[in-house]
Design goal:
By secondary structure, the protein is an alpha/beta fold. Helices cover about 35% and strands about 20% of the residues. The chain contains 11 helices and 9 strands. It has helices at about 5-20, 45-60, 80-85, 90-100, 110, 130-135, 140, 145-160, 170-185, 215-230, 240-245, and strands at about 1-5, 35-40, 60-65, 105, 165-170, 190-195, 250-260, 275-280, 285-290. It has a 6-stranded parallel beta sheet, with helices on both faces. Strands 7-8-9 form a 3-stranded antiparallel beta sheet. Helix 9 (about 170-185) links the parallel strand 5 and strand 6. Helix 8 crosses helix 9. It catalyses: (R)-pantoate + beta-alanine + ATP = (R)-pantothenate + AMP + diphosphate + H(+). Its EC number is 6.3.2.1. GO terms for molecular function: ligase activity. InterPro entries: Pantoate_ligase (IPR003721), Pantoate_ligase_C (IPR042176), Rossmann-like_a/b/a_fold (IPR014729).
Length: about 300
């Protein structure tokens, strides 16, 4: 496995990899090799491993990116959430190596956004705008977040030019927005959304979980318990589920909604398909979770 820090180097790697005919791995022998991309911000866990394994099964070449993107944080990264985000490239690279990743792209901020650190005048001028889909739910609590996500993902697609890209369904709004971006901008990549990976306690795996204390981790179980309770009929309405979660000790609820998974518009709890989403603060950490109401994960 190779680790690249510059756009030119990872582009050269991908170009050379594609120029070699396959020998009967994920693609038909003699065809052009396929490339799978797993975009991450590092602090990798079992949820990321599931994405990598899927990419490894589907493609001849697997590239994972490790980049904490300032554009998707408050004040373009001038905030504690960005500064405190866990970073350990050596550990992440070893994790990816054991999963069979071929290349890791781990650029600096200035590599992705030239001059970013020098002056606000050097911040990106051209962004991908996500409209209404990016302004609701997480977007209402974090204005500009999804514009930052879509912008960096579009750049990664342009740099790596993957055939397929893999995202977790835990970030359901992000997945819906990336799917819409690919469709609306005619980007030739197939998006794969993989099921949420949960701990034995039901908590959705997240890099942010590293910042939870043991009591906070126990409090965080309320998010998944409420979602599954709504799906399984323990609550008579969305409002009842929302009120229950808001009353749980150690949880400061932001939202609890049921939406159409394709466009994120609110729907009744008995509508199908439907997706229940929630976000809450547990101690210093803002957590999100969701559950498809009509299927079992």
């Amino acid at each position: 496995m190779q680790v690249f820090h510059t756009i030119s180097d990872v582009r050269e790697f991908c170009a050379k990899a594609r120029s070699a005919p396959t020998v009967g791995t994920a693609s038909t022998a003699g065809s052009t090799p396929t490339v799978g991309l797993v975009p991450t911000m590092g602090a990798l866990h079992d949820g990321h491993a599931s994405l990598v394994r899927a990419a490894r099964a589907d493609n001849d070449i697997v590239v994972a990116s490790v980049f904490v993107n300032p554009l998707q944080f408050t004040d373009l990264g001038d905030c504690d959430d960005y500064r405190n985000y866990p970073r350990n490239l050596e550990q992440d690279a070893e994790f990816l190596r054991t999963l069979g990743v071929d290349a890791v792209f781990a650029p600096s901020v200035d590599e992705m956004y030239p001059g970013f650190s020098a002056s606000p005048d050097q911040h990106p001028q051209i962004w991908v705008r996500t409209g209404r889909m990016g302004e609701i739910l997480e977007g209402a609590s974090r204005p500009g977040h999804f514009d930052g996500v879509a912008t960096v993902v579009a750049k990664l697609f342009q740099i790596i030019q993957p055939d397929r890209a893999y995202f977790g369904r835990k970030d359901a709004q992000q997945l819906a927005i990336i799917q819409a971006m690919v469709r609306d901008l005619d980007i030739p990549v197939t998006i794969h959304g993989l099921s949420i990976v949960r701990g034995v306690d039901g908590v959705a795996e997240s890099s942010r979980n590293l910042r939870l204390s043991a009591p906070q981790r126990r409090a965080a179980q309320a998010l998944s318990q409420t979602l599954f309770g709504l799906r399984d009929g323990e609550f008579t309405s969305v409002e009842a589920a929302r009120d229950h979660l808001a009353s749980c000790a150690g949880v400061e609820l932001d939202y609890f909604r049921v939406v159409d998974p394709a466009n994120l518009r609110d729907v009744a709890a008995d509508t199908r398909p439907a997706l229940a989403l929630t976000a809450a603060w547990v101690g210093p950490v803002r957590l999100i979770d969701n559950l498809a109401l009509e299927t079992y994960e």
